[in-house]
């Protein structure tokens, strides 16, 4: 019996990717507002397409997870705007689009 590390590596990379995207969404909404949603769309689609062409299972899975996290961030950036409106996160004083 051989030990398969693939699942653990994919799980850890998924955990770290999701953890990374929380502050990315917060900062993106703070500095750019929701108008940057299309950046997440383009990045997500690019990562997903790249995942189709990577032969490594782990590499393909990690790219897919990053791509889906980018796409999920589109929803999160609009929800972050609502959290800012409720006062849960600070407003950017240089922006007036709230």
Shape: elongated
In total, the number of strands is: 0
Which class of secondary structure composition applies to the elements?
Answer: mainly alpha
How much strand content do the residues show? under 5%
Name the helicity range: over 70%
Give a verbal description of the structure:
It is a single chain. With 98 residues, this protein is mainly alpha-helical. 74% of the residues lie in helices and 0% in strands. The chain has three helices and no strands. It has helices at residues 6-32, 37-53, 57-85. Helix 1 packs parallel to helix 3. The radius of gyration is 16 Å and the shape is elongated. The mean pLDDT is 95.
Note the topology.
Elements: H1 6-32, H2 37-53, H3 57-85
Keywords:
98 residues; mainly alpha; 3 helices; 0% strand
């Amino acid at each position: 019996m051989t030990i398969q590390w693939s699942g653990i590596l994919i799980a850890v990379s998924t955990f770290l990717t999701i953890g990374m995207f929380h502050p990315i969404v917060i900062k993106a909404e703070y500095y750019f507002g929701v108008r940057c949603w299309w950046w997440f769309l383009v990045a997500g689609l690019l990562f997903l397409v790249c995942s189709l062409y990577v032969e490594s299972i782990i590499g393909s899975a990690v790219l897919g997870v990053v791509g889906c996290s980018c796409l999920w961030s589109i929803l999160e950036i609009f929800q972050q705007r609502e959290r800012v409106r409720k006062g849960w996160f600070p407003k950017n004083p240089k922006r007036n689009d709230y």
